[in-house]
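Reposting from the mailing list since nobody answered there.

I have sequence plus structure tokens for a pair of proteins and want to know whether others read the tokens the same way I do. The first protein:
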Amino acid sequence: MNRFSAEPRESASLKAIVLLALAVCSFTGCAPFATFPADGQGPNVYPWMAPCPEVMATSLREAHQRVGSTTPFVYNLPANMSKMAWNDVQSRLGPTARRMTDGDTVVWNLERFGIRNTTAFSDIVFWNNGKSVLLTVSLERDNVMPFKFSHLQRFYVSGNVPPQSNYASSEKTPGLDESGVGPSE
């Protein structure tokens, strides 16, 4: 008869699995946001690739609905955005939204956005006739489901320069072709 039970071996295996799971969770919790424009802290994010257009469109739509639904829905995206990304965001926003043109005084200017696994954020400056409010829109999702609104923070800022339309510069981005893809290697 075997004097040693299999219980200690199973218990040790279970403990090892639990410790490994905790280690993995602690490392992924420190993962930085991938931001556009890049901030040098995390991996690169390409604004024409999923889920970037979804994050930009959802953030702009939620900010407009929650802060200024009675104002025109005129938006601006960050500089160096591909035409493909602009078109994707426009199609998600629908016919009530339009790209900013120089001279617009009421603008939802998306300055940057970031994505990390199941969370995302966007910093949007709402310009209304010379006055500005910085909005940080936070989004969440379950695994590969669509992002949904989580919460919004407002920061009142002053002294900033009104935005210029970034759409023209997106057509002239060096190193990117019409689809927004860089040169092949």
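The second protein, same order (residues first, tokens after):
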Amino acid sequence: MKKVILVALVFLGISTTKGYSQDTAKTIFHLSKINSIGFYVAPEYQYGQLKNQFTGFGGISGMILLNKTFAIGGGMYGSMDRGFSPTGVSPLVLHSRFGGLKMEYTLNPNSAIHISFPLMIGGGSANTDSANYVVRPNNRDSAGRRVLPGTFQPRKPGNDFFLIQPGVQVEANLFRSVKLFAGANYRFVVADKLTNLPMNTMQGFSASLGLKIGLFNIPVRKSIQ
């Protein structure tokens, strides 16, 4: 009986091995082979909405590029006008900064002029000049330490938000290592910690202009002659 069981197990193993060698598992998603990599930094200027009015944002992103088409990395941006005082918070001034994971897909990257689709997923914060800072009475901070008259001391921050910012860009290959791009984005915002500003403060449209500087096509596979 033991010999019969042993023979059956051996036969089953041979049959299974043969089946796997002949059939290839089919998958829903097919990952492309990575033939080239690259990397670049992209300083960028955005002119976008903050509290339903437009102001300038400056920022930079760093990206890793695969097959000249798909890029992934991160970016950080912040409002540049320290005196920006839109209707709704005036006479106070309003500041905002945001950043997070950034991905981008490029169509026909070898063409002199082409299109790309960036997407940022991350978070940020917005505050007014008096929302997160307060003058301590009697010139002392919360620990009882003496501070200078009129000194502003930080209060517990608020107005944090989660964002998703899709966009579309037109790019031009200026040189082998430099690209110029211009595009448009829309910032969708979800917030659960706003203390003194409405959620639509950070949401809105923006136009962008920037450069991509780096190496865009480093082969990782030898070409077949």
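Reply #1 (J.P.):
I read it the same way you do. Strands lie at 36-50, 53-66, 70-79, 94-107, 113-128, 133-135, 152-154, 160-175, 178-190, 204-219.
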